[in-house]
Amino acid sequence: QVQLVESGGGLVQPGGSLRLSCAASGSIFFSIYAMGWYRQAPGKQRELVAAITSGGSTNYADSVKGRFIISRDNAKKTVYLQMNSLKPEDTAVYYCNARGGPGHDFWGQGTQVTVSS
C-alpha cells in the first residue's frame, strides 16, 4: 500500500508564494519513481503542472515556467512544489502523483490552492 499526502495549500493573494509538499509512505521505492504535480480547476480537466524524474530532470507546463519549481528529497520520500508569483488562474486542487511503471501509479487526495485578493 502506497500513500501520498499533500500539504501546504491555502489562500494566498496574487503575487504571493506557497510551497506544497507531498510525502510518500508505504511500500514505495521512492527514489525510482517519477513524481508529478497536477492540478484541476472547477469545470476543467486535470493538467500536468510539473514533473521530476528519478534522475532529477524536470519539466513544466508553459503556464508556470519561471514561476514554479519542483524538487524532491529521496531521503525524506517527499516532493515539493515551490509556487511563486501566483495568479488567480493558478487556483485549483493540486494533486501529487507517483509513477513507477505499469500498475505503479499513485495519487494523493489533493490540496486546495486559492489565489485571490
What's the short version?
With 117 residues, this protein is mainly beta.
Can you tell me about this structure?
This protein has 117 residues and is mainly β. It has no helices and 11 strands. The strands form 2 sheets. Strands 2, 4, 5, 6, 9, 10 and 11 form a 7-stranded mixed β-sheet that branches. Strand 5 and strand 6 form a beta hairpin. 30% of the residues are buried.
Lay out the secondary structure:
Elements: E1 2-7, E2 10-12, E3 18-26, E4 34-40, E5 47-52, E6 58-60, E7 68-73, E8 78-83, E9 92-101, E10 104-107, E11 111-115
Parallel strand pairs: 2-11
Antiparallel strand pairs: 1-3, 3-8, 4-5, 4-9, 5-6, 7-8, 9-10, 9-11
End-to-end CA span: 40 Å
Major pleated sheet? 7 strands, mixed
Number of helices: 0
Order of helices and strands: EEEEEEEEEEE
Low-confidence stretches: none
What brief labels describe this structure?
117 residues, 0% helix, seven-stranded mixed sheet, globular, 11 strands, mainly beta
